[in-house]
Amino acid sequence: MHYAGVHSDAVRRVWGSGAVWGCGIHGEMSRISTDEPIGVDTRFAAPTSATRAGVERGARMIGCGGPALGEMIDLGFGNPDLPPPQEALAAIAAELARSHPARYGDSAGTVAYRAGVAALYERRWGVSLDPDAEVTQVLGAKEGLHHVLAVLPPGPVGVPMPSYPTHHEAVLVAGRPLVGLELDPDDRDGRHFIERAADLARAGRVRAIVLSFPHNPTGVTTTRAMLEELVAAAVEAGVTLVHDFAYWATVLEERPSVSLLEIPEARSVAVELVSLSKSHSMAGFRAGALAGSGAIVQRVRARKRAFDHGLSQPVEAGALWALHDGDRAADELARRYRVRRDVLVAGLRRLGWGRVANPAGSMFVWAQPRGGLDDAGVTRHLVDEHGVLLGAGRDFGATEAGWLRFSLIAEPEVLDEAVRRLGQCALLGSASAPEGSLAS
């Protein structure tokens, strides 16, 4: 996908529920089940969400600034527009002022950093972790997922469909067969996804399962009871669970997020990835951690020694503030995303769109104007003709055509303007834009 010049290799797929495919790092597909997929593109794909030429037509990309005629509204890439907390930046600045702030760090993270992650888990979820045995630093959840899949035993990996593209890509780069598990945006507790995943685990169809709640792109959350069911199946079958917990703080309803590690039995089969990218708008600093199964954590820690030297000392200082003292800042960011969600969901529903998921978590809205829509073509048209940049559902492995992903990376008045422009797009089959502002 291309988002304002930012490129990531997107694997375009639409999987049938439970369809199993294998793929090497060059994208050659080998079918290993008898289920027919809805459609498959066998290559690492060219961009589908927008064309670079279309993006360059905009005078500038806008987010927190007010929209003006001819400006491009970027709601595509999930890149936080809100700044990190001032206290975190102050901690970074103070460390920069010390002598030797640019020396190599530790690929596992310092003792203080790992203890900070353990403190976060104890405070937020009542989970006691051994910082030495059960925590290691990763440079963001994305990098961490690649490392985890590289150290697991070979075999098929279950992945939600739709999902964050890195979930698909990491499986394919690791040279493992991928099992697509449909996750319906109306399934607010992820019940059907978890039941299907548990069934596949017990049947020996997968060796590992990637899950992520709150979920990108649908915003679906889950409950401890549902996760307990999946953990029981994983323990019984010896299947590894990998929970991408990137949106642990971006909760848009009163129900708190659930850590997989709250379930005691999970510690033997599961690891969890957390980061400060979305919780504290520190995406570019790449401060993350892997926690859980000591055996997997130690294998990842050993592997990382060959790849990196960990975070820089100044960034780690800012991360330590967030881990120990950043709860109020994270809650405030979640509140602002909640306001944006309410504005956008109300606007799309007033346009008469067919399905608009009301996310319980994450920083995205997943919506379908009407079934059968060519979402890739529509996203290109929206950039070229209306100056709105969105994500095409097929880039996330949507099992049905026509889905679009909105990132909540703009202030309410900008979202209001985006809705107005969408109302003028004949391809979406919507009525004219609603009168008056949706922002309140």
How would you portray this structure in words?
By secondary structure, the chain is an alpha/beta fold. It has 2 domains: 50-83 and 329-425, Aspartate Aminotransferase, domain 1; 86-325, Type I PLP-dependent aspartate aminotransferase-like (Major domain) (Aspartate Aminotransferase, domain 2, 3-Layer(aba) Sandwich), CATH 3.40.640. It is 34% helix and 16% strand. It is built from 12 helices and 20 strands. It has helices at residues 52-57, 86-96, 111-125, 140-151, 165-173, 191-202, 224-237, 294-304, 313-325, 327-350, 375-386, 412-422, and strands at residues 2-3, 6-7, 13-14, 20-23, 29-31, 39-40, 61-62, 72-74, 135-138, 157-161, 178-182, 208-211, 240-244, 270-275, 288-292, 355-356, 364-368, 388-389, 391-392, 404-407. The strands form 5 sheets. It has a 9-stranded mixed sheet, sandwiched between helices. Strand 1 and strand 2 form a beta hairpin. Helix 3 packs parallel to helix 9 (313-325), helix 4 (140-151) runs parallel beside helix 5 and helix 4 crosses helix 8. The longest helix has 24 residues, at 327-350. Keywords: Aminotransferase, Transferase. Residues 71-422 form the Aminotransferase class I/classII large domain.
